[in-house]
Design a protein that fits this description.
Distance between the termini: 69 Å
Strand order of the largest sheet: 24-25-26-27-28-29-30-33
Number of strands: 60
Helix content: 10-25%
Shape: globular
Radius of gyration: 33 Å
Strand content: 35-45%
Number of helices: 10
Mean pLDDT: 93
Structural class: mainly beta
């Protein structure tokens, strides 16, 4: 009976242990910490020291001994402290000597450094650094060892630093040299670490980064399968047997189904696990209803969770048909898309996450259902926003190259993005000169194979602008032919290639400036009547008509959704940004926005009248071109209560009139089936008397990341928007927020995009504010000379702060130590070490104690350069956990003596004016008693 009782107790203990282990919260086995805070930045290159002499040459070739600004003990105390994402190019001035394609911005070279500590509890975990995007080329050192070079400013870097990091009091150092002189595109690419950075801690047995593939597929019988592929990595020292459990949850959080399989992974090996889930009648994802499911993948080992990843997915079917174009979920529809680069007013390419959502919502309100990322991988936060908000994506590769490095980049893109339901196709290149050659065909054939080996569910295209009729051309190696500006070849190509689906991958390239209605090439101004386009392109109206009237054309992607810096065609200096955008650089709509809204939206009546009606007095009686943009049946135009005329609406070219200008009110009324359903009006306003601030949303989240674009405008005495105002406005902000960017959409403006003042352009400017990590209330004030100021109060809500790696202060940890041979007699503390002596004195690590069998003396030696801030004011050297009797010598001078053998912190001070430091610690060892530095040695700006 006693044995049974004991057995029951043991059973319950084991059961509780197992049950507890199954409920370990995710943070205990996987931590994803933001590394965005607290980077040191230096603009300009820092040359590496010239290597001369035997010792310097020898050390230079060793791991962990990088020199210059990559060295662990480099003095960055006077560098600028900033948070990421960061684009230094947008902070600088415009220069007519800089590259027009890069927006006349100077880019150059910069350095970043970041220090961090790891808990002793992290030892044994898999530690990975992740850099989502660095523009353009970067070299990355960790603790003095070069670990990575990136050759693309748009691909992420995942760096296993497990063998290189230290724990406890030791400080780890990341150093990054960014070369932004390197260019990959012919548009503004920014400069710096412009996307997020992360520190990821995982169990030795874990799911590799981007290691889940779970993209639902529609079977021929109408059922759905979710094939699951899980890539496991074992960085541990022993073989790991594990159970993989995968569960699917619907949008309400209810479990739909689950499955499991077993996998054994050898040490330092990868292993795939495969299983499949069946699903009946799921809710489908579409731009109108972007329904997302979640897949939870758990790695169990011996009954304990080792890793867990939650992946979002969506159920949707896509098909490109040679005769009927594009089908989504069994419904035929046109792709109504835009091409976009990734910069925004005020922030350059360092776009905050919330600003992606702002831009996507603008596009969807216009009626767009698709987005071509031009011409590179996008931020992962953008992809997530497209999933959740409902915007289909053509995902595009950056470099057309089939060498191993660029194939690796293509593989990375597919693996990262293939779970996103928003992605409907892959594009392997844009406008490559070899597109009509056998070389180009063979390259695409190989890239096609790479894509299909990783994702068979989506078609592959290439954005061609020529070579379509060459005997060898890349259209013969893709699933869907992509046309860039080839309206005149649509019919011929379709006739000669009747089995190949067709898509206009880039269309339009029409010019206009927001709020301008008179073209003046001497001032780099183009009107907003959709009157002009690039010689290779077409107006917005013509381009859409050619797509919409051909049922076999799947749709198009207009160039571009937003203006962008650089490529100021058809102008050069002083124009610094493009003229192609449907919206300007701030996201303020141009006339083209309403044009596409009228063409693409059928759910609401659209009617927009242009131009404004604020013309100078010498224009009275002179003809003004008036355009009504609508999706109604007919339009009646009225000037000052008198009907001008009524026209049947033209859904492609829209409706125009020539109207003599007289101040007052110009109105348009739209009719559907004889009933008035829409109204638009422009009227002559008075002079501006006050400012008005409007906000895109009512609050900010106090997480230090949320942003809010504010619109600044002027009003007249009747509260009417003044569309021609150009006042210089100054801004003040108080409370838990800051201004991070300014803009007004003027492609010819050279005003700073950082600061606290910006002029209006054609009545509008934009201020982007960002929250801090605290709740409260932001008070934002806009003021201008001669105008009544305006203010707005923005609540900042208390929310959870994303987990982040703590920021280290200006502390220098001395890591490069040599230890002398043991000596029975007290040695000369100031003895020299021969330059070619690599053997008498040996490298040693701090945090270790040593025991000698008899009484003796041992010296520890290091050299360093004192931080400039400490050179001026003096400082201290802190020896943490120094054990044994010791003398501290600095530059041949004894700074202090420890007279006891206890393990304790020991501090000495050194005087002002010192720059180079030669530090020696003379330790006296008693027989069989441990001595040494059991903790870090730190130099601090601190006086005793």
């Amino acid at each position: 009976m006693k044995r049974i009782y004991i057995s029951l107790i043991i059973f319950f203990i084991l059961f509780n242990i197992k049950a507890h282990s199954m409920q370990i919260p995710a943070e205990s086995y996987r931590e994803t910490l933001s590394l965005d805070k607290g980077w040191k930045f230096h603009l300009g290159d820092i040359p590496f020291p010239t290597i001369k002499g035997h010792k310097a040459t020898y050390i230079n070739a060793k791991a962990g001994r990088a020199g210059g600004a990559a060295a662990v003990d480099y003095d960055d105390s006077l560098w600028r402290m900033l948070d990421l994402p960061h684009d230094w190019a947008v902070e600088g001035q415009f220069s007519s000597e800089a590259n027009l394609s890069q927006g006349y911005r100077t880019r150059g070279i910069g350095w970043y450094r970041r220090s961090f500590r790891l808990s002793p509890d992290d030892k044994g975990k898999h530690i990975e650094l992740q850099f989502d995007g660095i523009s353009t080329h970067a070299t990355i050192w960790v603790n003095g060892t070069i670990l990575h070079r990136n050759w693309c400013g748009y691909t992420s870097m995942y760096i296993d630093v497990t063998p290189y990091v230290t724990y406890g009091d030791n400080i780890n150092t990341i150093a990054i040299r960014v070369d932004a002189n390197a260019q990959e595109g012919w548009w503004y690419e920014g400069a710096g670490i412009y996307r997020h950075t992360w520190l990821v801690k995982r169990s030795p047995l874990h799911i590799a980064t981007d290691g889940i593939y779970a993209h639902p597929a529609l079977e021929n019988d109408g059922s759905w399968k979710v094939p699951i592929e899980v890539l496991l990595n074992n960085s541990g020292q022993t073989t790991a047997k594990s159970e993989i459990i995968v569960a699917l949850f619907d949008p309400t959080g209810k479990k739909v189904t689950e499955g499991s399989t077993n996998v054994t992974v050898m040490p330092l090996q990868n292993k795939y696990a495969y299983l499949s889930l069946s699903v009946l009648n799921p809710d489908l994802w579409s731009p109108d209803n972007p329904t997302l499911y979640k897949i939870r993948t758990v790695v169990n080992q011996n009954g304990a969770i080792q890793d867990e990843v939650v992946t979002k997915c969506g159920f949707r079917s896509i098909r490109f048909d040679k005769d009927t174009g594009f089908w989504l979920n069994g419904q035929n529809m046109k792709i109504k898309g835009v091409c976009c680069h990734q910069d925004h007013a005020g922030v350059g390419v360092a776009v905050p996450d919330a600003l992606w959502e702002f831009r996507i919502r603008k596009l969807k309100a216009m009626g767009a259902n698709a987005y071509r990322i031009a011409h590179h991988p996008a931020a992962k936060e953008f992809m997530e926003a497209c999933d959740s908000l409902g915007l289909m994506v053509m995902d595009e590769n950056r470099i057309f190259n089939t060498s191993p490095e660029y194939i690796r980049q293509l593989e990375w893109l597919i693996k990262r993005d293939r779970n996103h339901p928003c992605v409907i196709m892959w594009s392997v290149f844009n406008e490559e000169p070899m597109q009509g050659t056998e070389n180009g065909y063979e390259m695409v054939r190989r890239m096609y194979h790479v894509v299909k080996s990783l994702d068979k569910t989506r078609p592959v295209t290439a954005a061609m602008n020529g070579g379509f009729f060459a005997p060898y051309n890349v259209s013969k190696a893709v699933d869907v032919a992509g046309f860039n500006y080839q309206i005149n070849n649509y019919d011929r190509f379709h006739k000669e290639n009747p089995e190949l689906p067709l898509l206009s991958s880039e269309d339009g390239s029409a010019f206009m400036v927001r709020g301008e209605y008179v073209t003046d090439f001497s001032k780099n101004i183009i009107d907003s009547y959709d009157s002009q386009s690039a010689n290779w392109g077409a107006t917005h109206r013509k381009a859409w008509k050619e797509i919409d009237t051909r049922p076999w054309m799947a749709g198009c992607f207009y160039w571009t959704g937003f203006d962008y810096r650089g490529e100021p065609t058809p102008f050069q200096w002083p124009s610094a940004s493009s003229f192609f955008g449907i919206m300007d650089l701030c996201g303020f709509p141009k006339m083209a926005y309403y044009l596409h809204q009228a063409q693409w939206r059928t759910d609401v009546p659209i009617l927009k009248l242009i131009p404004h009606w604020n013309w100078p007095s010498d224009s009275i009686g002179k003809p003004i071109k008036v355009m009504a943009i609508s999706n109604v049946d007919s339009i009646r135009l009225i000037l000052n209560s008198q009907t001008v005329s009524t026209q049947k609406a033209d859904k492609y070219d829209m409706n125009t009139w020539t109207v003599p200008y007289y101040p007052g009110k110009l109105e348009a009324i739209g009719y559907q089936h004889g009933k008035a359903i829409a109204h638009s009006m422009v009227e002559t306003t008075g002079t501006p008397i006050r400012l008005r601030i409007t906000s895109e949303k009512a609050y900010l989240n106090g997480n230090g990341r949320d942003v809010l674009p504010l619109t600044i405008e002027t009003l007249d005495s009747q509260g009417r928007h003044v569309p021609t105002a150009d006042s210089m406005v100054e801004f003040k902000i108080s409370g838990p927020g800051k201004i991070i960017g300014l803009g007004n959409g003027n492609p010819n403006s050279h005003e700073p995009e950082k600061g606290n003042r910006r002029s209006l352009f054609n009545g509008l400017s934009q201020v982007i504010i960002q929250s801090e990590e605290r709740k409260g209330e932001i008070i934002f004030i806009a003021s201008a000379r001669g105008l009544k100021s305006d203010s707005i109060k923005i609540p900042v809500l208390q929310v959870s702060i994303p987990a982040f790696v703590p920021v280290e202060e200006n502390t220098v940890v001395l890591k490069k130590w040599l230890v002398s041979p043991a000596s029975l007699k007290k040695p000369d503390v100031n003895q020299l070490i021969a330059d070619n002596d690599m053997n008498s004195w040996q490298p040693t690590s701090i945090g270790e104690l040593h025991t000698y069998g008899r009484a003796c003396f041992v010296m520890l030696h290091t050299t360093f350069k004192l931080p400039e801030i400490i050179q001026k004011e003096g400082g201290t050297i802190l020896f943490r956990k120094l054990k044994g009797k010791a003398e501290i010598w600095f530059n041949h001078r004894c700074l202090g003596e420890k007279t006891n053998e206890k393990e304790e912190d020991f501090i000495v001070s050194f005087p002002q004016g010192s720059s180079q430091g030669l530090l020696r610690v003379l330790l006296k060892a008693e027989p069989n008693k441990p001595i040494g530095m059991n903790g870090t040695v730190e130099i601090e700006k601190r006086q005793l």
